[in-house]
UniProtKB/TrEMBL annotation:
Cofactor note text: Binds 1 zinc ion per subunit.
E.C. no: 6.1.1.10
Full protein name: Methionine--tRNA ligase
Name of the encoding gene: metG
Compartments reported by the entry: Cytoplasm
GO molecular function: ATP binding; metal ion binding; methionine-tRNA ligase activity; tRNA binding
Highest rank taxon of the organism: Bacteria
Source organism per UniProt: Paludibacter propionicigenes (strain DSM 17365 / JCM 13257 / WB4)
Record's keyword terms, sorted: Aminoacyl-tRNA synthetase, ATP-binding, Cytoplasm, Ligase, Metal-binding, Nucleotide-binding, Protein biosynthesis, RNA-binding, tRNA-binding, Zinc
Amino acid sequence: MTNFKRTTVTSALPYANGPVHIGHLAGVYVPADIYVRYLRLKGEEVLFVGGSDEHGVPITIKAKKEGVTPQDIVDRYHGIIKKSFEDFGISFDIYSRTTSKTHKELASEIFKTINDKDGFVIQTSEQYYDETAQQFLADRYITGKCPHCGNENAYGDQCEACGTSLNPTDLINPKSAISGSAPVMRETKHWYLPLDQHEAWLRQWILEDHKEWKPNVYGQCKSWLDMGLQPRAVSRDLDWGIPVPVEGAEGKVLYVWFDAPIGYISNTKELLPDSWEKWWKDPETRLLHFIGKDNIVFHCIVFPAMLKAEGSYILPDNVPANEFLNLEGDKISTSRNWAVWLHEYLEEFPGKQDVLRYVLTANAPETKDNDFTWKDFQARNNNELVAIFGNFINRALVLTQKYYDGKVPALGQLTDYDKQTLDEFVNVKADVEKLLNNFRFRDAQKEAMNLARIGNKYLADTEPWKVAKTDMDRVSTIMHLSLQIAANLAIAFEPFLPFTSEKLRTMLNLSTFDWKELGRIDLLKAGDQLGTPELLFEKIEDETIAAQVQKLFDTKKANEAAAYKPNDVKENVAFDDFMKMDIRVATVLDCQKVPKADKLLQFKLDDGMGERTILSGIAASYPNPEELIGTQVCFIANFEPRKLRGVMSEGMILSAENADGKLVLIRPSVKVTNGVEVK
C-alpha cells in the first residue's frame, strides 16, 4: 500500500436546480464528512472540496419555465445548498461553484491542453433541430411518447413514468419542448473523448490494480469495460455553459460531464492559488471521490481518462460510492417532491442535525439501496440516542454534580467488574479505525455506539445511587470510570455527531482531544471541574412523526391528482338513446347507512311527485350521511327498480369519481324545484 503524505477528498457536485435532500446527505456528504473529520482527528493533512454543478440543460429548462436567467437559478440554489451543508456540519474547506471565473479558465485550459495533444476526435452526427427556435435540441428539450409505457411526456433521455433510459430517436411523435414543433434531423459536429483508446490502461488500472474497491463500484466498472468503451461527446450545442475554446466551435459549450468534475480542481485552485497543484499533481497525494452510484462511470472511467489525456494529474485511489436511499418505500424524486429537504428538516426539527446524521449513517445504503422511514427515525432517536447515549451521559454528569459538586472524583480500588468493563472498550479505537479505513461508516458508528452501551450498562449494574448510602469511596470510582467513558464518547463520535461531540466536550471541559487518545482512561483528571449538565437528545413524540408521514401522504395525493388522466371516451351513442334517460333533481329527506353494507347509503328523496328510495354505493365518500339531509341531488328517474339488501331502489344517484377515487355527488349550483328535468 502506498504511504501517502496527504489526502484530497471530493464529494459529488450537487446540481444547482433545486435544494438538497436526505438522499444526497446519506449517499455522499455525511460519509465524506465522517471520513474527513476522522483524518483531521488523526492529525493528517487533508483537503475537503465541494461545490455546486451549475451548467447543463435542466437549469436552462427551469429558467425558461420561471421566466428568469440560468444565472438567477444557480445563484438561488447555490446559496440554499451551501447553507444546508453548513447547517449540517459538512466541513468543506471550500464549497464553490462551476460558474466561477477560476473554473471557467481552468476548464478551458484543460480542454485546450488535451486538444493540443490530439486527445479528442471530431465526429459529425445527426441531431434533432428545432427549425422554429433555430437551435439544436439537447435530449431534455425533446419530449414525446415513451415506446415502453406510452407516457406522452417522456424526455429524450429518460421516461420518468417508467424509468427507462431513452435516446431522442426512441420517442414516438417527438416535439421540441421550446417551441412545440416537430424537430428535424440535422448534421452537427462535436468533440469526443475517445474512451476506446483508453480502454487498455483503464482495464489494468481498475480491474487489476484496484480490486479493493467496493464491489458495487468494481462491478459497474467491469460491466462497462466488458461491453467495450465508446467515444463520448465533450461538447454540446447550447448557449449555457463554458464555450468550447477552439476555432470552429462557435455556439458550442463544454458538456456538463466534462466541465463539472474539473470543478474539484478549480475550487482547490480558488482556495489555494499558490499551492493547489500538490493536492492534484503530487503522486504522494491520495485522491478520494465520494459519490452516488449514478456517478460511478464518470468518476472511475470518464474523469480519469480526461486526467490521463491531460497528462499531469493524479488519478483517484478509491471511489467509495454508495447506492440510493429510498423514502418510505418509494424512490426519492425531486420532480415529484417526494423527498425530505434539508432546509425544511431544519425548520421542523431545529437543533436536531445530529439525529438525522445518526439515522442516515445507521441506515446508509453502502452495499444496496436502503429505505428511510419516519418510524425508524423516531425509534433510533428514542431507543438509541436518548435511551442509551443521552441517558448514560446525563446520569454520569448529574450524579457527579450531586455527589461531588461537578468535580471529577478520584479513582479508587478497581473491582473485577470494573476491569471487565474497561476490557470491553480497550479495542474501540482499533475497531472503529479499521471500519473507517474501509469506508464502512455504518458499522463504525455502531461500534462507537457500543461504547455508550457499555457505559449505560456499567451505571445500571453498579447502581451508584444505591451504593451512595453506604460506600462513597466506591461511588467515587464508579463515577470516575463513567466520566472517562463519557470523554471517550466525545472523541469517538466527533466524526459522526459533531454538534453532540462539541456539546459533550463543553460539559466535560475537554478542551484538547485527538484520535490517538481514544481508549484511554485518563482523559479527565481527578479534581477537574465539569460544566453544567444538559440533555444531549430529547424524545420525539408520535404526533411529530405522524405530521411528517401525513406531509408525505399529502404529497403523494397531490402527485396522483397532477398526473391524473381521464379515461378514454366511450363509444358514441345516438342522441335519441340519450334522450331516453330521465335525469331529475330531488331534495334529500333522509339519508342513512344500510345495515351490514359498508358501501351503501339509503336515500329518501322528495322528487316533486312524492317520495322515492334510492340506494347508492357512496358510503365511503360520505361518512356522515345525515349531513346530506336538505341538500339536492341529481338522479336517473326511469331505471328499472332493483331490490338491494331487501330494499327496493328506484333509480340511480349521479356522482363523479375524483382522481383520488372519492365519489362526489352531482348537484345543481343553485336550489331548483324538485322534479325538474336535467337537460
